[in-house]
């Protein structure tokens, strides 16, 4: 009967389609209550635009949903979700006070088939994957656009399919699909319950229509809900008068949507979604200095002011020069790029300054880019070719390459300028430590002010450290020390963050080496991070322009005292990993596999997969599996998380190579934990990567 009503509603709406035979505007995908692309409760097969990020809040009694939805790839959509169950307590009042129960989960949806003229989008999805499993579901569905209508039809198992109006067709293929278990043990949460996928004796059909009204900001929705709300988590069943839900979505601004719906035949819901897109520049306007105009008058090299040239290289080209060399037919600059992520822009600005500082006898400009005192790449620019490109004197069907990027060659010529010795530098930055979704309080935080200093004793040897001051902190509410059968290598976080107002965050000596063309090394020792001190080393083999790199690190460390001063606790260990990196040939994806020993002496591997968009934003996820069982690991079952790294020049009006990041880890546990190292050679040698070299191909 309910399916009949949806078909009847579709029949009433479809005649209006002929009034829009010339309709050209697509139906803009919107979010459902769970923050995913969909109808009202149910998902559609649609994907968000590539690189989309949204923040969703929905209130439908007794639930409050808070979701971050991500579109890291055109065919993959994922959500991180918290649910506040407002009529259930989190735990004993002595621990949680009057806090409501909080559930967290991860949803993913894969596009199996892209919509064509006759065929629909087809998607397969998993809800509450690797979470508590309270809302776990699986579905397969299809969505097709017909004029101003987006029509969805699908089948759901688990929570979304609890109406059970059909038998599970997979149950006839194997008895394994006939039984669906529930998560009863907290130590089982966070695991992938593969045995539950698409299982249970019953499933449900769901579907709906989203209608794009002639008023562009407004869409209307109607759906057949696959849930009957009689199997709600925490014995929290809800009355349902109808499986037909009605709703509307209003796009108030390009970055905000409002949702209103009438669900279960008796309940109103309200939601708001804020969204942005990582493929689009946040701050496109930059107040960088204009490139140096080329001089037309002949230059007498003897009159060149090399101090002025060095200043222009720093201020205009973003190249902090260490030394400048002049030969009969060439000019070589050795330095570090500190401003322009786009090395093509840096090359053009550097070439203009070098052109103005020399005459026509200087035929080639060389830039040896360093990082941490190590040669990373050498860029060669032809004077003649640069002038032709600058004057647009070339065949526009084939623009010549401005620069050649290769390994560094011996420097030729006489040193005409060298940076004065300035060994000491200082920094002052804010910092944030946080915990989300714990029983002590939904959001625990510590705001710190970190003052740093660096003493550069030689080109490749330095002493650096930082002192942190506790500015604001509510970690004193952190009472729940989750049970752990492992050495407490990270779960003493409350003690570290609350014992002292001031602490030595890190204090270490670091030596970098470059023994062969493609091999880089570092050795370090001291107070390496706020929880551990010791000694360690890393080596990395990274051929220039290669998609792959391989390295290893090993560290002997001891746990520091809680006051973050200079004392140590008894616990010590040796930790290290073999690191394998690969830049994949599609979509800017990079994979990193780390295999080795972790701080709690467990052994296993961490897989990190990230995607870098053209404007520098990076979206990534990681997971660690070790030889520790789910029971010994405790709640969460294994270490996992997601992060977004962003160039700071996306939120400022000046260019910079510096980056910031935000991340989410559902729980801090002791298994699968790494040492926090200050430097990573893969990051130090970033410009040797395949993608980075290819980005400079004109």
Overview of the structural elements:
With 698 residues, this protein is mainly beta. It has three domains: 2-277, Beta Barrel (Porin), CATH 2.40.160.40; 301-418, GMP Synthetase, Chain A, domain 3 (2-Layer Sandwich), CATH 3.30.300; 424-694, no CATH class. The chain has nine helices and 32 strands. Strand 20 (424-438) and strand 21 (441-458) form a beta hairpin. Residues 1-25 have low confidence and may be disordered.
N→C terminal distance: 63 Å
Known CATH architecture of the largest domain:
Beta Barrel
Write down the overall mean pLDDT. Answer: 89
Q: Report the sheet-strand fraction.
A: over 45%
How many domains in all?
Answer: 3
The CATH C-level class name of the largest domain: Mainly Beta
CATH topology tier name of the largest domain:
Porin
- The spatial strand order of the largest sheet comes to 20-21-22-23-24-25-26-27-28-29-30-31-32
Low-confidence stretches: 1-25
> Which geometry do the CA atoms define?
globular
Q: Helical percent range?
A: under 10%
Cα gyration radius (Å): 29 Å
SSE class: mainly beta
